[in-house]
Specification:
Layout: E1 5-9, H1 24-36, E2 41-43, H2 52-61, E3 69-74, H3 82-92, E4 98-103, H4 113-125, E5 128-134, H5 138-144, E6 152-156, H6 168-174, E7 178-182, H7 214-234, H8 238-247, E8 254-258, H9 262-273, H10 278-292
Parallel strand pairs: 1-2, 1-8, 2-3, 3-4, 4-5, 5-6, 6-7, 7-8
Helix pairs in contact: 1-2, 1-9, 7-10, 8-9
């Protein structure tokens, strides 16, 4: 039985091309509902809407700063620019420190060690409390070991995407690195709103998710049909069971789930309070196992 907690992924508040237009009032209501509902962990990045997500998240959390965890991220930066861009993020977030600062994505041919060394110095200064990496391979993390200490690791993990279980999660457990899942609802595919037959607009980046690849599509479709039938027969939503399944996994610290409206947020929150019996969870694990064993490995869902 896991001890993970639910966190709010704030990407959609960026009102960017990935998620499309987002109503400002909906973002505010969603964040306020998250605070009322007991969410303590809020995850954003400077790239989400070119800082818009950081801004709206920080504005709403300002009154509760000492009681919440705020995480943000940056892609590679030259060492001399790290503090400058961190300060920009802190200003948007209405705070003088960030609880977790992630290096967002590894990039071939770039040396992240100088950036990591500066991040460690910023930890010493108090502007950063904990350091994380997102989407890095074990090899990538090993290269950073002499430059700084990694406290958090974040990557995609869900009923549809279990590959981190093979090497990444055991590595994190061994190194005492806390594991945070994103895309816990597989970009909305593990909800009743969308399904594998959904066709997003032609330029929507979600069309490029691995679940739509020819070598995975049919098996994902079979899984979703069986999952929908199971959820309906047991009286739960797909989103609630999807999140509950991760929350019960060992070695997971935080389960991030995005929400664009208060209604979506409240449905996600219900995952913490529902109590499906072990037989339901075992059936769900079996369905996921069958999918996991029969789709090709890739580094991430994008």
């Amino acid at each position: 039985m896991g001890n993970a907690k639910l966190g709010l992924g704030c990407w959609a508040f960026g009102n960017d091309n990935y998620w499309g237009a987002q109503n400002h009032k909906d973002s505010v209501k969603t964040l306020q509902a998250a605070i009322r509902g007991g969410i303590k962990h809020f995850d954003t990045a400077r790239s989400y809407g070119n800082g818009r997500s950081e801004q709206i998240t920080g504005q709403q959390l300002q009154k509760y700063r000492e009681n919440v965890v705020i995480a943000t991220k940056s892609t590679w930066l030259p060492s001399e620019s790290v503090e400058k861009y961190l300060n920009i993020s802190l200003n948007r977030l209405c705070t003088d420190y960030v609880d977790i600062f992630y290096i967002h994505w590894p990039e071939t041919g770039l040396d992240f060690r100088p950036m990591m060394e500066v991040i460690e110095k910023l930890r010493d200064s108090g502007k950063i409390k904990k350091i994380g990496v997102s989407n890095f391979s074990i090899k990538d993390m090993e290269l950073l070991r002499n430059s700084g200490n990694i406290d958090y690791y974040q990557t995609g993990y869900s009923l549809l995407w279990r590959f981190p279980e093979k090497e990444i999660i055991p590595y994190c457990t061994n190194k005492k690195i806390k594991f945070v899942s994103y895309s816990s609802l597989a970009q909305g595919i593990l909800t009743d709103k969308f399904n594998i037959s959904t066709r997003f607009p032609g330029d929507d980046p979600r069309n490029k998710l691995v679940f739509f690849y020819k070598d995975s599509y049919d098996r994902v479709k079979i899984f979703l049909n069986k999952f929908k039938e199971l959820a309906r027969s047991e009286g739960f939503s797909m989103a609630q069971l999807s999140l509950k399944w991760i929350l019960r996994q060992p070695r997971i610290d935080t389960v991030l789930a995005g929400a664009r409206t208060r209604k979506q947020l409240e449905e996600n929150l219900a995952a913490e309070s529902i109590d499906p019996d072990d037989e339901i969870m075992q059936k769900l694990s079996f369905l996921s196992d069958e999918l996991y064993k029969n789709i090709p490995y890739r580094e991430n869902i994008f």
